[in-house]
C-alpha cells in the first residue's frame, strides 16, 4: 500500500464527492417508521460478499464469499471474530445479519444511510462507530471515499463497507502472520486498529490537498486565470466537505474514550487518546488550510485588481500622449483659407517639434505619478 | 406522498416566506395581558375543522368535521386520542379546546402566534412542542411552510395546524391498517412520529436548496448575469430563514430528551435521540451550504472582475494599436505648404509600412504582457 | 395606542439615536466618589412630575403632579404602590425619593446614567431593572427611545423615566377599570407587565426596520444610488445600536428568573419565562436582519460592478468599432501626391464597403464574446 | 482635572501607542532566571520619586521626594498607607521597596514589564493589580497611556507608575480635606478608588474615539480621500490596541470580586461590581465601534466604486457621442477624387444634420440606460 | 546569546516553515501498529549525539559525545540528570534510550513525529511535553524552528531535539557556575526553565513579525506594489502557522499546572502560572497582528482602488477635453465644396477661440465634480 501511494502522488488526485442531489435519503424515508431499512447510496451490480476472520493467539480461520451462511458458520464465540460485510446494497442480507446478532434497527438504519455523519453510540451490548473512509482508486487516480461502519460486540467486530477495496490489507497480513500484538489481544484492539487506520489515511488526503493549494498559490502569484479561480473554488468546496466529514469525529472518538463499556479494556483507552490527538491535529490542519485558502482568494482578487491597474495605465498613457498630438495634427488639417501658419516655411518642423515637446512633457508627468 | 415529491423536483420549487411586514404580532399585542389570544397569521376563509383519531390495538374511530363538539365526543380517556385542529383563525374554537382540556393560556398564545420560533416546554401535565412544517403544494409547485404545534398529554396528542394538508397521510394509513407498532404503543410514540416526519421533510427542503445552489454555481462559472446574482441573493435569504427556523430545534428536541416527564416511556428516548441526530445533521448541512454560497458569491465577484479585465484588455489593445496609427495619418493630413515628404514618390508606401511596423511592435508588446 | 401605530407606519419612522458625543458621563464623573448623582442626559425645561397609583382589589387612588410631597403622601404600605418619576433632570428630587425609600446610591447613579446598558440587580430588599424604552412620537413621525428604570420593592414599584409619554396607558386603563387580574395581584405582577410592555414594543421597532430593509433591497435590485448606500449604512448603524441595547436584556431577564427573591411570587416566574422567550426571538430577528443586510451590501457591491461592466462594454464596443474605421478614413485623408487609390473611380465606394465589413466583423466578434 | 478635559476636546487628541518594535522585553530576558528585574520601557532622565500618604480619620501626613528612605519613614502600620512610586526606570529602587515589603519577585517583574497585559493576582498577603492608565498631556494635546500597577497589602496600597502626572488629584484633594468617606475607610477602599478612576477615564478615551469615527463617517459620505482612508486605518489600529488593553480587564476585576481575601471588606465588593459593570459597558462600546468602523470601511469602498462608475459614465458618454461624429467628419475629409457628395450644395448642412441626429440618438440611448 | 540577537535584527529574518508536502508522516505510517517508531523529519548526516549533565548543589559532571553508552554511564539516580538527545534521525538510538528508561512507545512516536502539535501528557511516572523551538541561525539570517520534546521523570529531565544548536547556553552556564537557585533545586525546576526559555523566545519571533508588518503598512500607504502584496501574503501565512504552533500551548501548560503529579514541587506551580501568562500574552499578540494584517489587506485594496480612480480621472479628463476639440477640427477638415465658413477671414481664429472656450468649460465642469 505504502509504495503505491508514494508513486501516484504527482498528478494530485482530486476528491470526488457525491453530488448533493445524488443523495435520496429524504425522498424515500419521510413518514417511514423508525428503523425501516433503506439503502441510500448508489445501486451496485457486484454481489455483496462477507469476509470472516476468526482467530486467537494460536489459530486463524478466514473465508470470503458471497455465500453468507457458509461464512457465518465460521463464527466462534470463544475466539475473536471479524465479520466484514462488503457492499450495502443488499438490504435483506444486512437485515439478516442484524437479526442474527441482534443489532438494533436504528443502528442498521445508520449503516445503510451513506450520508450519515460520523458518530459513535454505545448500545450497551455493543458500540457503534461510523466514519467516512477515503481510499485511492489506483486506476482512476482519484481519491474516493465510502461510508463505513464498525460495531464492537463481545469478541466480535462487525464492519460494513459500501464496496470492496479498503485500507486493511496490512492488518490482514499481520493477522495471518501473527505478527505483533494483534493476535494476542481482544476484539477491542482490532476495533481500534481499524479506526486508527482510517483516521491515519486522512493525513494523506490533507497532504494532497495541501500540495494542490500550494500549486494554486504559485499559480495565483505567477499567472492567475479563470481556470485557477475555478480550481480554487473546487478546493474550497472539498475543504468544506472534508471539514463536515471530519469535524464530528472528535466528538465520536471522545464518546468511545468516555464510555465505560466493559467491551473496552483499560489499556486500550490510551490508544484511543492517541487517535483523538490525531483527529484534533487533522481538524487544526483543515482550519489552517481554510485560512490559507481564503488568503489566496484575497490574493487573487488583489492580483486581478493590480492587473487592471496595469492595463489602465497603459491605456491611459497611450491615449493621453497621442490625443493632444492628434488634435494638433487635426488643427492643421483644417481647410480654412486664411490660416497664415500653413504658408510659413518652418511651420511643419515647428509643429512637429511642439508635438515632441508635448509628448516629453506627458512622459515627465507620468514619471512623476510613478506610472512609468 | 413519496412519488409526488420525486416527480415535481425538476422545476425546483422555491420557498415562499412570509414577508417580514406581514407579521402583525407586535402591533396588536403591545400592552395586552399575557395569554390574550390573538391569531397573528393570514386570515383564511375555509372553516376550521377538527380531526379526531381514537384508537388502541383493537379499535380505531376517526372523524373529521367542522362540527367541533361532535368530534370531541369521540374522545376516550382510556384509548390514545389524536386531536388535530386544522386552522388557527378561529380563536374562539382554540379557546374552547384549551378550556376543555385545561391548556395554559400562554401555551395557546404560542399556538396562535405563527411567527413563534420552535420551542419545547414541559408544563408538567403536558409537553408543548412547536415547529415549522414544510410541505409541498403540488399545484403551485411551491414549497410552503406553516406553523404547527403539538401537545402531548395523558393518552392524548393535540395538533394545531394553520391550514389543511399535512405530511401525516402515511401515519393515518398505518393507524387505519394497524400496520407496524403504531397501534400498540402509547401517545408518546405517535407524538414522536409526528415530529420525526416533520423533521425528515427538512432533508427534502435542503436537497432542493442544494440543487438550486449547484445550478447557480454552474451558472456563475459559465455565464453569470444580473439574474444569477438576484437568485443568489434569494437563496441566501432562504438559507438565513431556514437557519432561523431550524437552529432552535436542537435545543427543543434536547428539552424533550432531558425532560423526565412520565408522559414519555423509557424506550421512546432513543427515538428522540435519533431525531436529535437528524436535526444536527440538518443544521450542519445548512452551515455547509452557507459556506458554499458565500464561496459562490466570491466566485461571482471574481468572475465579474475577470470579465472586466477581459473587456479592458480588448479596449486597450484596440486603442493602443490604432491611436498612434491614426496620429501618423493625421500628420500627413496636415495642409502645410512646405511638407517635403508629401511629394516623394515612395512616401505613401513607406508611411503605410511604418504603420504596419508600429502595429507589429504593439502586438509583440502585448504578447509579452500576456494580454494576447 | 394600537390604532395610532397602525396608521403611522407608511413613512417608516427612523430611530434617532443619541449622537455618541452627546453623552457626557465620562467627563463629569472621573474621580468622583461612587454614588455621586450626576444626570448625564439632555437638560430639559419641563418640570419633573411624580405620578402615584395606590390600589388593591377594592380601591384605587391616583395623582400626578410636580408637587412631590403631596403625591408621596398617597403612599400606603398595605396596598400596591406604583410611583412613577417622570423626568430625571432634577437630581435633588431623585435623591430625596432615594433617601425616603432607602434606595442604594449606586442604584440611583444607574437611574440617572442614561447610557447605562440594560441590567438587573437584586439588592435584597428590592430588585432593580433598567431598559431602553422605544416609543413613537406621533407628531414627529420618529421613533425615539428613553432610558427607563424599574425598582420592585415590597408592595411598591418605582419607575423612573426621562420624559413624559410612555407605553403604559393600557395598563393605567386596566388599573382604573379593575379589568382583568391586575388589581388582584401583588406588585411583582405590575412590575412584570411594565417590562413585558416595553419588550413587546421591540417587535414593532424591528418590524419597521424590516420594512425599511426590504425597501432598500428592492432599491438595490432596481436602481441603486449613492442615497441607497447611505441609507444602508444608516440602517446598519441602527441595527448595531439596537443590538447593543437589546443583547444584554437576555441576561437581565434571566437574572430575575433565577433570583429567588421573596418579592417574586412563584407563578410570576412563568410570565418572566415568556418575556425571556420574546427577548430571544427579538435577538434572533436582529441577527437575521444583520445577515440580511450584509447580504444586501454584497448585492449592492456586485450590482455596482455589474453596471461598471455594462458601461465598459458600451464604451469598448463603440471605441473598438469606430477606431479602425476612423483610421481608414484618416489614411485617405493624407495629402501624399502619389496615392494611386485616390484616383480610382470605385475607390470611395470600395473604402466605404471595407469599413462596413470591418464593422460587421467587429459585431460578430462581440456577439461571440457575448457582449451583445 | 474635570475642567481641563472639557476644554481640550475640540482638536480630538489621538492615542499614541508604543510602536511594537519599541518593546524590548523579549531580547533582554530570554533564558534569564524568573524574577530577574528588567525595566522594559523607555529610559527616562527624571529622577524616580516616592510619594507617601499616611492617614486615618484624624491625621494625614504626606511627603513626595526622590529621597526614598525619608519618605518610607512615614510608613505607619496602624494607619492607612499609600506608597506611590513615580518612575520605574530605577530598578534598584524598585528592588529595595520590594524587599522591604516582601513583595514576590515575579510581581516586581510584572511591575517593570510595561507591556504586561492587565491582570490581577492574589498572592495571599497582598493582591496585585495592573492596568493601562490613559491620561491627557495637556500641552501636547495627545492622549498617552502608561503602565500602572497597584498592590493592596494590609493597611497599605502600593502604586507603581511610569512617570509623574496621573488621574488621582481629586483623590488627593479628598484625602487632604477629609471630604467624604475616604479617610474613614480601610486601604481596600482607596485601592478601589484608584481602579475606578482609571477605568472611568476609559469612557473619555472612547468618547473621543467616537467623535473621530463620526467625523470620518461624514468625510467618507461627503468627500473621501486617501487621507480619510489612512485615518480610518489609524483609528482601526487604535481600536485594536484599546481592545487588547481593555479586554482582559473584565477577567482581572472579576478575579478581585471572586477572591475571598481578608484584605477586602465585605461592602467593597458591591463597589467592584460597579467597576465590573463599567468595564463590560466599555468593552461593548469597543465592539460597537469596531462594527461601525468596518461598516464605514465598506461604505468607503462602495463610495469609491460609485465614483468610478460616475467617472466611467462621463468618459463613456463623451466618447460614445463624439467617436461616430468624428468618424463621419473623417469620411468627408478623405481625398478621393470621385466622391459625389462633396460637390452637392446641401451636402455640408446635411452632414451636420446627420451628426446632430446621431448625437440626439445617443443621448436618448443614455437616458434610457439611466446614465444621464 | 543576548547580544547576537540584538545585532542581527536589522534585516528582519523570515520564518522558514517546512513546506506542507515535506511532511511524510501519513504515507509511511498508515496501518502501522501504534508505537511503531518512524522519524518523519529531514534526514540529516551529522551523527546523533547525547549530552548529559548530572548535578546536585555540590557536584556537576557533564559529557557530550556520540558514544551513547559512555554518556549514559554518567547517569546517577540520586542527583539531577539532564539527558539531552541531539538529533532524532537515529531511530534505533531513540528506541534504546526509550527502553532503558522505560518510556512509553506512544511517547517515543510523538518525539519522532516532527509535525506533532504542542502537547503535554502525564504518564504517571513521567510528564511528557512537546513544543516548537524557534532559534536563529546566525549565518543564514533566518529564523528556524525545530520540534523539541521534554520528559520529566524522577530526578531526570530528557530533552529530544532535531539538531544541534539550542537556546539553553545560558542555562548551561548557570549550571556550570552554580549561579542562582538552579543547582539547589529538583529536576522540575530545570524542566520549567527549559520551557520558559523556549516560550520567551516567542516574544522575539513576534517582535520581528511586528516589525515586518509595520514596514509593510508603511509600504502600502506610500507605494504599494505586487511585491508588497506577495509579502503580505507571506506574513499572513507565517501568522497562520505561528498561531497553529502556539495556540495549543495554552492547553498544554495548563495540563502541567492542573496535573497533581508528585514530580512537580508545590512552589513550581507559580512559575508555570507565569509561563501560562506569557503564553496568553503571546496568543493575544498574534490575534492582534492578525487583525492588523487584515486591516492592511483592506487598506491595500482600497489604495489600489484609489489609484485606479486617479488613473481613470486623468484618462477621462484628457479624453473629454480633447475629443470634442478634435471633432471640431475634423469638421473643418472636410472637403465639401460648399462650406461657406472656410472662406471667412476670421473663421480660423474664431474656430480656435471656440475650442478654447469648450476646453475652459470642460475644466470648470471637472472642477465642480472635484476631479481637479
**Alpha-beta classification of chain A:** alpha+beta
- Poorly predicted runs of chain A are 1-13, 18-27
Q: Give the N-terminus to C-terminus distance of chain A in angstroms.
A: 57 Å
Number of distinct helices of chain A:
10
CATH superfamily grouping of the largest domain in chain A: CorA soluble domain-like
Helix content of chain A: 40-55%
Instruction: Report the CATH C-level class of the largest domain in chain A.
Output: Alpha Beta
Greatest contact pair? A-E, 72 and 66 residues
Strand order in the largest sheet of chain A: 2-1-3-7-6-5-4
* CATH architecture identity of the largest domain in chain A: 2-Layer Sandwich
Main sheet specs of chain A: 7 strands, mixed
- Fraction of residues in β-strands of chain A: 5-15%
Oligomeric state of this protein: homopentamer
Radius of gyration of chain A: 34 Å
CATH fold description of the largest domain in chain A:
Beta Polymerase, domain 2
Instruction: Let me know the number of strands of chain A.
Output: 7
Average of the residue pLDDT scores of chain A: 84
Overall 3D geometry of chain A?
rod-shaped
Q: What order do the helices and strands of chain A follow? A: HHEEHEHHEEEEHHHHH
- Please indicate the count of domains of chain A: 2
Strand and helix layout:
The structure is a homopentamer of 372-residue chains.
Chain A: H1 2-7, H2 25-29, E1 49-55, E2 60-65, H3 68-72, E3 80-86, H4 91-100, H5 105-112, E4 119-122, E5 127-137, E6 142-153, E7 156-161, H6 169-177, H7 187-222, H8 226-258, H9 268-331, H10 347-368
Parallel strand pairs in A: 3-7
Antiparallel strand pairs in A: 1-2, 1-3, 4-5, 5-6, 6-7
Helix pairs in contact in A: 7-8, 7-9, 8-9, 9-10
Amino acid at each position: 500500500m505504502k509504495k503505491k501511494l508514494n508513486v501516484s502522488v504527482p498528478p494530485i488526485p482530486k476528491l470526488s464527492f457525491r453530488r448533493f442531489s445524488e443523495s435520496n435519503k429524504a425522498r424515500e424515508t419521510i413518514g417511514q417508521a423508525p428503523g425501516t431499512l433503506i439503502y441510500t447510496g448508489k445501486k451496485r451490480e457486484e454481489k455483496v460478499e462477507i469476509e470472516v476472520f476468526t482467530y486467537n493467539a494460536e489459530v486463524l480461520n478466514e473465508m470470503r464469499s458471497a455465500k453468507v451462511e457458509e461464512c457465518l458458520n465460521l463464527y466462534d464465540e470463544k475466539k475473536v471474530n471479524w465479520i466484514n460485510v462488503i457492499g450495502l446494497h443488499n438490504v435483506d442480507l444486512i437485515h439478516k445479519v442484524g437479526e442474527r446478532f441482534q443489532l438494533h434497527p436504528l443502528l442498521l438504519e445508520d449503516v445503510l444511510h451513506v450520508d450519515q455523519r460520523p458518530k459513535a453510540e454505545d448500545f450497551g451490548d455493543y458500540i457503534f462507530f461510523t466514519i467516512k473512509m477515503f481510499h485511492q482508486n489506483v486506476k482512476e487516480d482519484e481519491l474516493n471515499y465510502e461510508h463505513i461502519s464498525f460495531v464492537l460486540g463481545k469478541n466480535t467486530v462487525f464492519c460494513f463497507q459500501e464496496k470492496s477495496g479498503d485500507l486493511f490489507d496490512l492488518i490482514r497480513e499481520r493477522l495471518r502472520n501473527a505478527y505483533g500484538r494483534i493476535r494476542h489481544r481482544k476484539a477491542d484492539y482490532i476495533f481500534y486498529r481499524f479506526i486508527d487506520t482510517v483516521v491515519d489515511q486522512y493525513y494523506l488526503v490533507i497532504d494532497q490537498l495541501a500540495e494542490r493549494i500550494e500549486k494554486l498559490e504559485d499559480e495565483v502569484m505567477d499567472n492567475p486565470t479563470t481556470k485557477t479561480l475555478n480550481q480554487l473554488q473546487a478546493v474550497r468546496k472539498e475543504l468544506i466537505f472534508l471539514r463536515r466529514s471530519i469535524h464530528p469525529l472528535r466528538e465520536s472518538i471522545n464518546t468511545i474514550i468516555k464510555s465505560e463499556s466493559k467491551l473496552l479494556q483499560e489499556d486500550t483507552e490510551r490508544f484511543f487518546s492517541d487517535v483523538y490527538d490525531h483527529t484534533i491535529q487533522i481538524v487544526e490542519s483543515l482550519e489552517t488550510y481554510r485560512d490559507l485558502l481564503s488568503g489566496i482568494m484575497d490574493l487573487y482578487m488583489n492580483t486581478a485588481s493590480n492587473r487592471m491597474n496595469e492595463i489602465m495605465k497603459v491605456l491611459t498613457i497611450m491615449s493621453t500622449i497621442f490625443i493632444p498630438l492628434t488634435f494638433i495634427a487635426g488643427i492643421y488639417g483644417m481647410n480654412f483659407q486664411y490660416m497664415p501658419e500653413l504658408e510659413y516655411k518652418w511651420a511643419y518642423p515647428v509643429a512637429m517639434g511642439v508635438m515632441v515637446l508635448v509628448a516629453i512633457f506627458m512622459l515627465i508627468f507620468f514619471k512623476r505619478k510613478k506610472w512609468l
